[in-house]
Design a protein that fits this description.
It contains 10 helices and 5 strands, in the order αβααβαβαβααααβα. By secondary structure, the chain is an alpha/beta fold. β3, α5 and β4 form a beta-alpha-beta unit. The longest helix is centred in the C-terminal third of the chain and has 18 residues. The chain is globular.
Length: 218
């Protein structure tokens, strides 16, 4: 019919009916296995982005009850948003069994992985200019805590909601990205180590870099 308007696809119709606004710069679903450090860091990163940009760059941080349920929980939360959702899981090596297997499974499911070995605080060390070798997570976070206390006269706590802001005072996120990328490329790409074998390495920088690349070029 001559007067009939061209209708959008089914997904467009469905989104319009339920009032879903698809963010122009992306919708990041970040699922962690803790309620402390990781959530506080990414919430801080989100809040550091200009309000006008945050309208078009959504960062949603959620928690899974256990590490083993991370993939299932992420798929559950992203259901119905596959056309615009960018799902990530963030978790540490610590004592997680089948660490490498879990990373491969997530990636096969279309989920990006911000893993850290031995713990998330190794990413914080990159802010300070280096990523020293640590045998376990206790050594890693204690060393970071000591540096935080020395520089800012502040005792580190995993429930610190201002951790992103404190890191920006102590260092710089772009410098941290460069340091973490260099360490990752050497351990994973050059030496071909698995994530569980790569000492003091993190892939978290990839997620942070991706978000900032959208937030800062607009």
């Amino acid at each position: 019919m001559a007067n009939e308007k061209r209708r959008p696809g089914k997904r467009g119709d469905r989104n319009a009916r339920v009032g879903i606004r698809i963010p122009k710069l992306g919708y990041y679903l970040i699922v962690t296995d803790t309620v402390g450090t990781e959530q506080n860091y990414f919430n801080g990163l989100r809040d550091s982005i200009r309000p006008d940009i945050r309208k078009n760059l959504v960062i949603r941080v959620e928690k899974s009850k256990t590490t083993e349920q991370l993939i299932h929980r992420t798929k559950e939360l992203s259901m119905g948003m596959a056309q615009y959702c960018r799902p990530w899981i963030v978790f540490d090596r610590d004592e997680v069994p089948r660490f490498d297997e879990m990373i491969r499974k997530a990636e096969n499911e279309g989920i990006q992985v911000g893993w850290s070995n031995p713990c998330f605080e190794i990413w914080f060390h990159a802010y300070l200019g280096s990523m020293p070798p640590f045998m376990n997570s206790q050594e890693c976070w204690k060393a970071f805590s000591a540096k935080l206390e020395k520089q800012l006269k502040y005792k580190y706590g995993k429930n610190d909601r201002q951790i992103f802001q404190k890191l920006e005072v102590m260092g710089n996120v772009h410098t941290a990205i460069k340091i973490a990328r260099k360490k990752y490329e050497r351990e994973i790409e050059e030496l071909m180590k698995s994530p569980s074998e790569a000492q003091s390495v993190t892939a978290v920088y990839k997620l942070v870099e991706e978000i900032l690349s959208k937030a800062e070029t607009t």
